[in-house]
Amino acid sequence: MFLGVDVGTTGIKACLVDLEGNVLAKAYRKLRMYGLEANRRELDPHQIIDLAKEAMREAAGPGAGEVQVITVSSLGEAIVPVDRAGRPLMNSIIGTDPRGAQELAWVQEQLPPEELTQITGLNLSSIYSLNKILHLKRHVPQVYKETWKFFCVADFVVYMLTGEACMDYSLASRTMAFDVHGYTWSERILGAVDVAPEVFPTPVLPGTVVGTLRREIAEELGLSPQVQVAVGGHDHIFNAIGSGAVTQGVCSNVVGTTEGLTAYLGRQRLDSKTIAESNISCQPFVLPGTFNTVAWHNTAGALLNWFVDTFFPGPKTAQEQLEILNRLNAACRREPSRLMVLPHFAGSTTQAMDERAKGAVIGLTVYTTKEEIYKALLEGASYEVMVILQALVNAGVRIDRLVVSGGGSNSPIWLQTKADILGRPITKVAGAETGAVGSAILAAVSRGYYHSLQEAADVMVKYGETIEPDENYHALHRERFEEYRSLYGRLKPLNYLLAGGGKGN
Predict the structure, then answer these.
(1) Alpha-carbon distance 232 to 238, whole Å?
(2) What are the counts of helices (DSSP H) followed by strands (DSSP E) for the chain?
(3) 462, 469 in Cβ contact below 8 A?
(4) Is the model's pLDDT at 505 over the cut of 60?
(5) Which of 36, 40, 86, 425 has its CA 20 to 30 A from that of 347?
């Protein structure tokens, strides 16, 4: 048995998975986001650990005696400053927090952007951990001075479980301080910004077993202290593995709070010019010497949550929220809406990497209904996927098959809308816990139960229906898409002006 733990932006999942990929038990705990009133986005490390332990204890349940390996994955970029006594010094600043923009500009004065991209494999942005660290160094020097290690979230959880300070290559590559060629902290970058490499954990290959449970933690969880703990990695990668995207040609589309497309590149590596032009990052995969893409947009499920909170105000249980969404889905018409949505409600990512970008709903009349706006939101999110997909193809990434998972894959109208817009068949992954299944696949291979990721995925990943596009609707959407592509640039000066930051360039 394998216990997969995934820490996301809004919650923590723990799942008990067997060698056939069956999720035998699962538990979920909702995380609170802090700092929103001050335009900040923070998670409480103490809450993360407490809720992770609760979820693990519940998911392990009667099968606790059979758990062999715990693997932890998480959102990328977030930093957790920890002192030498192992105590978090402040809340974790996550990637979408606006702090770090000034620091990124300063970093690019110290090193040419082309060199930064060549070393890191990243499309440069303020979201990456190094910018947040430099912000603390400049504005909260006491925290910076007292920090022993800057963890990302998954490796922080691993540290609290085992006492071992390690960070997997995939999360390390989201810091903008990691050399993806030498698999080490970049002396060139860190020397230029005067940050010691020692403030980062030891980088290791994803799936590496770094230790066993601390005795007191094992007792708390009801598990054996002999249970092994492995570093996981970036949630995009583990969702891709759990979707079967472990060979070239298969692209994973995970629809959660955000929406990502991850494709396995093998030993192919995107060059720095392609990365900069396409805003697609290229980071280490879980196999030595191999790489994958990371491309995403910020507002998938987040867009729908905003809609429900705005148009159906008041406190709601998770079940009540789901019932509202189900009613809206049932009310949606197949044909394209009479609106167009630019879904940059939390900035633009792969399209423009512009955290100041804003969203828009175009075409409103006094007769527009809530249901029409909802359908247009689904279309806008799907147009954004089309932008990303085109960028991947133009970058030379082979995509023969698109597999979709996550909460958004449970909406038939959303899947059909996306297939119609993309003009591609979409295969749904059966089961919602792709991150946990991905963790189990990696753990099963590392322990020798399977010879390769492909062999494990063939057994452990299950697929549901394939949604075929309607060519007539695709033709209509293709015409609208040409207008959609230009919206960001056309609205940028106005959005900047309304935000009080000048018209932009």
Answers:
(1) 8
(2) 18, 23
(3) no
(4) no
(5) 425
Residues of 379-393 as b/e, b for ≥16 C-beta within 10 angstroms? Answer: bbbbbbbbbbbebbe
Judge whether residue 499 has pLDDT over 80.
no
Sequence length of the chain is 505
Q: Quick one: average pLDDT of 36-65?
A: 93
Query: And the tokens for 381?
Result: 């999110």
Q: What share of the chain is helix, strand, coil (3-state, %, to 5)?
A: 45, 20, 35
b vs e for 92-104, b when ≥16 Cβ sit within 10 Å of the residue's Cβ? bbbbbbbbbeebb
Residue 250 phi, psi dihedral angles, 5° rounding: -100, 130
pTM confidence score: 0.92
Alpha carbon distance 65, 4 (integer Å) = 15
Rounded to whole angstroms, the Cα distance separating 110 from 97 reads 23
Mean predicted lDDT score pLDDT of the chain: 94
Domains of the chain with CATH codes: 2-242+435-444 (3.30.420.40), 294-429+470-498 (3.30.420.40)
State residue 279 phi and psi, 5-degree precision: 60, 35
**464, containing H or E segment:** strand 463-467
Instruction: Show the tokens assigned to 136.
Output: 């603390």
Provide the 10 A C-beta neighbour count for residue 333.
10
